[in-house]
């Protein structure tokens, strides 16, 4: 292959990993055509649909990707599901390089007896509605007064913040107000946060814990014991300091109680059809006990959507690896699909840059062979019933969302994809 011919590069997934990869490749090979496909009409994956609605600063990273898509040679192709609308094999026939950045969007289920009882929810049941990925669900009006939250990472803390915040705490957010109002009609009185790990090994960031301290009317408690001799700059010491400070600053008349129970894991969800209690055990002493709960929300990680047609016959693509992103010359993967559902947005930048280096080395080393002329997306039009949503069309939908923002909100999101598609296609 000659390297002066512009290559056709397909990136599948417009979440942070796909966008960082497109950015890194475009910097080194500004003449190549890069098409970033997404099954959704809106770009940016979990930045739009996962990151908490009150963390707009985090979401603002999309501005740098907006600038990427403003380039003539980098295009967004939304509302195209690879694996369903276009097979990977067909994509590879028309593109010199195909890189998968399809993420791991499904909430992992906690595999304990009683997991199917009514009243047992996953983080995704709340987060995807709060972010308008789907409409309001019954979960918001059926949580009850006493909630057990299972999980010790940042997503659990996103859920906790939601459970204990009041209406005005959402100023400046893009929360789905139908879901918020349904919840605030009867908010919780107590949240018990079960963390299998000790406070020293917990996954949560101290900054996220400290942020809880700015919410009025919450009384925090924790079961951790003091410990001497920790390096004060260690993550464990900072986490302890954050929890200690939450516990020290007590309101006189709390609205809601939050208990952090470290080294404690659920054994069983109890109830006939509906959840009534949780059997828990202390992971160090192995003591068991039972606590009452109206509902439980599990935030124990995310995994690949193994039902997605893209993986049919390509199951090995879901294998987690810290090694190479190269599956074979010409086919690559990056981000959460490659490394598993761990790491924040910046970790995907580093991952994408490493995979970009592998791709560039394969191009420079002539390891990518093309048998026929590759036509990129033009060679695939016959597979598509409708044209992809372009970036310019997405901008129209985006502007509409911004213009519809109600008082104290930064935007009013379309719920799901159809509103975006309608807006994008009728205006253009
Ligand atoms: C609830 C939650 C909150 C988080 N909050 C933060 C935070 O505050 N700060 C932070 O730094 N990190 C946060 N993270 C982590 C961050 O979201 C991830 O690190 C990041 O989104 C992973 O990027 P990705 O591009 O690999 O996957 P994703 O963001 O999931 O993007 C994958 C994209 O691929 C598309 N796709 C999938 N299958 C197909 C297909 N077959 N065809 C076409 N397109 C497809 C999807 O529609 C999606 O757009 C959070 C994660 C979660 C789950």
Main features:
single chain, 428 residues, alpha/beta, Rossmann fold, FAD/NAD(P)-binding domain, 2 domains, 6-stranded parallel beta sheet, 15 helices, 18% strand, binds flavin-adenine dinucleotide, ferredoxin--NADP(+) reductase, flavoprotein
Q: What would you say this structure looks like, in words?
A:
- The protein has 2 domains: 8-105 and 304-388, Rossmann fold, CATH 3.40.50; 108-302, FAD/NAD(P)-binding domain (3-Layer(bba) Sandwich), CATH 3.50.50.
- The model has no long low-confidence stretch (mean pLDDT 95).
- It has helices at residues 16-28, 45-49, 56-59, 62-69, 88-94, 123-130, 139-142, 154-164, 177-184, 206-212, 235-248, 336-339, 345-364, 391-403, 418-427, and strands spanning 8-12, 33-37, 74-77, 97-100, 106-107, 120-122, 146-150, 190-195, 218-222, 256-262, 264-270, 277-282, 288-292, 295-298, 302-303, 326-328, 331-333.
- The chain has 15 helices and 17 strands.
- By secondary structure, it is α/β, with parallel strands linked by helices.
- It binds flavin-adenine dinucleotide (FAD).
- It is an enzyme of class 1 (oxidoreductase).
- It comes from Yaniella flava.
Q: What is the SS-derived class?
A: alpha/beta
**How many strands, which pairing sense, and closed or not: the largest β-sheet?**
6 strands, mixed
Q: Count up the helices.
A: 15
State the distance separating the first and last CA atoms. 38 Å
Helix content: 25-40%
Using the coordinates above, name the CATH class of the largest domain: Alpha Beta
| Low-pLDDT regions | none
- Rg over CA atoms: 23 Å
Shape: globular
What is the CATH superfamily label of the largest domain?
A: FAD/NAD(P)-binding domain
CATH-level-2 architecture of the largest domain: 3-Layer(bba) Sandwich
Which cofactors or ions or other ligands sit in this model? flavin-adenine dinucleotide
Cofactor: FAD
Protein name: ferredoxin--NADP(+) reductase
InterPro entries: FAD/NAD-bd_sf (IPR036188), FAD/NAD-binding_dom (IPR023753), Ferredox_Rdtase (IPR055275)
Catalytic activity: 2 reduced [2Fe-2S]-[ferredoxin] + NADP(+) + H(+) = 2 oxidized [2Fe-2S]-[ferredoxin] + NADPH
